[in-house]
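Annotators were shown the component list below and the corresponding predicted structure, then asked to write short factual statements about the assembly.
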Amino acid sequence: MAPLAGIFALQGAAPEGDRSARARLVIALLAVLLVAVAAFSVATGASDASLRGVAAAWFGGEEGVLSARDRLIIYEIRLPRVVLGMLIGAALAVSGALMQGLFRNPLADPGIVGVSAGAGLGAITVIVLGGTALGPFVALFGIYALPLAAFAGGLATTLLLYRVATRRGQTSIATMLLAGIALAALSGALSGILVYVADDGQLRDLTFWGLGSLGGATWSKIWAAGPVILAAFIAVPFLARGLDALALGEASARHLGIPVQRMKNVAILSVAAATGAAVAVSGGIGFVGIVVPHLLRLVIGPGHRHLLPASALLGASLLLLADAVSRTIVAPAELPIGIVTAVFGAPFFLWVLLRRRGILDL
Amino acid sequence: MIEARNVSVSIGRSRILSGVDFCARPGEVTAIVGPNGSGKSTLVKALSGDLPYAGTIAFNGRDLAAMRPSEAAVVRAVLPQATTLAFPYTVREVVRLGLMGGRSGALAGQEEMLPERALARVDLSGFAGRFYQELSGGEQQRVQLARALCQVWAPVLEGRPRYLILDEPVSSLDIKHQILVMQIARGFAARGGGVVAVLHDLNLTAAFADHVFVMRRGAVAAGGAPQAVMQDALLSAVFDCPLKVGAVPAASVPFVLPQAGLA
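Structure shown to annotators:
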């Protein structure tokens, strides 16, 4: 309760209607939460390798506190999984917040409007055709071939969606959602054709990939997806101001001095890169992009300067928590994390719709 | 000065504006009046840089087409007809958006106080913490005016006049706030800035404008001081409706009544 009291105390001190002090406090708390959740995730698992052992090995200076087996479990299994989870969670949440700002619409989410499906199509294309038709592409880009293909698929979908749903700077929410359904169906159908021609080995790869899991996390996956996600994040600070201005509409954003077309291009590229990379390494993990920014807007408001970094932090924490649930709820087996996020996220989405039914009339 | 020469705008195949010459001087309130569909808003959108146009538009001698958005944002602020927001911003957060270019022209250290001062000016003191989406249309319109005022707080910056472009600024306001907004426009002009306002109310126009452009079918039908332009025959023809212009003797300010109501 102490942090909550702090929030309200600060609220009294700040000028009326200014939520930036509260937002900074929330961001600090979210950072602490993420560290705690990450430490918890590294410390827990099927094996009894503990955080205390890790801490002792890091800070105690004594060699050999960690057994070789524990060292392997922590550094090669749990740590990559936690790092990947944080990257993916942050990428999905930031993609959602960016898309919502870009479309001026709190219901836009890469999973709901077909961007993830498009990225998935790109990834499946590389998995199935990587040995044959796309051999040179895979040979050229190596471990980056999969995230790059997913990025291309996500980019194509986002551009198409924007084209269809936006006219003279106004986005029709109904058109966007319906176009998203069509694009997801098309990507799904094309993916289905590829699955149909896939051989047994590829099918196994596809199945593992498509369930949406952090289970296969390795450092090489992090090296493949991480740079693409971080590249998208680098653009984020430059987008915050423009997205706030865009909330007034495209013309008003331009009147305020924002180069709107360039800003939209950067936002679309960032969404496609972050979503593409996330989908490439972890399959379909839905709803993070809609739940996280929505919750945060309730607390710190919609200003993107704070919403975007806060989304990254909360997205990372929530995905690690979802991963913890997926690892423990049917232990010793694992539930795909995409199922966990959908079980919580889909009802949340319905709740948002219920509260703001009028939004579809915009 | 804002100077438009031979400006034409086409949307699709239809020509909305043809060969419009227009100017708005600093120190003056310039009104644009005319019937629905006469091209008032299109002219204002062209001046704001929202529409592709043929011809030339210049602000203080600089070609609008050659200005980057950030440069245009220094020289003018625009109030659109209505603004809806998709997210729950507070009134203060909306007004602060006017400061994002960093060229309000307020004295150093005073910028943080501008949102409150701008809100006070539009008679919305105490509204800073309210949610924009929960306000009435007229209140939202005044919040947007406060935002525009923040953007060009100093009507003259580095010796160059700045402009307020207002598209139907009073259409959703009650009479008290109509007068308030027109007084804000007059005050901005009195301190050296220029104001362009699309207006429907001919009597407000007569009372507050220095210069009136009357538009009809995408062209300028007449331009000049209110006393010169607001004549029975001209207005009746432009608005296609019998009108009677009188004058309040003291200031010889014209007023316009429908003839139908006088019978």
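Statements collected:
1. The first strand of chain A starts at residue 166 and ends at 167.
2. The first helix of chain A runs from residue 2 to 13.
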